[in-house]
Design goal:
This protein is an alpha/beta fold. It contains eight helices and ten strands. β9 and β10 form a beta hairpin. α3 packs parallel to α5 and α5 packs parallel to α6. It binds adenosine-5'-triphosphate.
């Protein structure tokens, strides 16, 4: 397995002087290509900061982040924006769909913005995989929350990104719908070899991953392969997350 993301001694400090907060402290980790990694930890442990630094949405204060061999630190804003658009997919808790556009137009948005050619066959396959093959001309308001998140996932996949990053992608969904979306993420890893990195608070959601990384106070303190919901919840309890 090659490496999708390699972080070396990544630190992130917000603010300065007495009010400075160290959100990440010397984090070094390799996220394997074709793997599904979940990131958990107590509130304020640095999960979002980790995801944002790994995905080039935020810059570390020090350390190195490499995506498929490309060093992100030192890249200019324009190059970084282009890299995110072409090589990374995002799924957030809020679906961030454009209400006036159809499902298909929303999914095609990253390609239009990047002036990239549309591969109609791949578009059809992505829509079919997320179960929206017959909804291409619908608008977001005509869809359920779970369906809207599946549109967001299709939009993330359409550029064939090296990594899909999810920040609480199922946070706004009810339990059954969340499982649907998680199964779909799992399937993109198993069937398409997609690399997925997801921040979550939910031990059940984390159990869909190959490995769970645990953050505490800005450090990776544990990694759990082949996670079960019970094992994840147990580690979280030991980190004091549910105290
Ligand atoms: N823009 C910012 N300015 C200052 N401090 C920040 C900023 N963003 C995050 N922090 C601080 O950095 C630390 C890590 O925050 P982060 O959002 O990464 O944690 P998290 O684990 O994602 O938390 P949660 O689970 O509550 O979303 C926290 O102490 C937070 O208050």
């Amino acid at each position: 397995m090659s490496d999708a993301v390699v972080m070396t001694s990544v630190s992130k400090v917000y603010g300065r002087g007495g009010g400075a907060v160290a959100a990440l402290r010397e984090v070094s980790v390799t996220l394997p290509s074709g793997g599904f990694t979940a990131v958990m930890g107590p509130s304020g442990s640095g999960k979002s900061t980790f995801l944002h630094c790994a995905a080039g949405l935020d810059r570390p204060t020090s350390g190195s982040v490499r995506l498929g061999g490309t060093e992100l630190s030192g890249m200019g804003e324009t190059a970084l924006t282009e890299l995110r658009r072409e090589r990374i997919g995002f799924v957030f808790q809020a679906y961030n769909l454009v209400p006036s556009l159809t499902v298909e137009q929303n999914v095609l948005l990253p390609l239009k913005l990047g002036r990239a050619k549309v591969d109609r066959e791949w578009l059809a396959e992505v829509l079919r995989r997320v179960g929206l093959g017959d909804r291409a001309r619908h608008r977001p308001a005509e869809l359920s929350g779970g369906q809207q998140q599946r549109v967001a996932l299709a939009r993330a996949l359409v550029t064939r990104p090296e990594v899909v990053f999810g920040d609480e992608p199922t946070g706004a969904l009810d339990t059954m719908t969340a499982r649907d979306v998680l199964s779909l993420l799992r399937e993109t890893v198993d069937a398409l070899g997609q690399t997925v990195v997801m921040v979550t608070h939910d031990p059940v959601a984390a159990s869909y991953a190959d490995t769970v990384l645990f953050l505490a106070d800005g450090r990776i303190v544990d990694a759990l392969p082949a996670p079960t919901p019970a094992a994840v919840a147990d580690r979280m309890t030991r980190l004091g997350a549910y105290a």
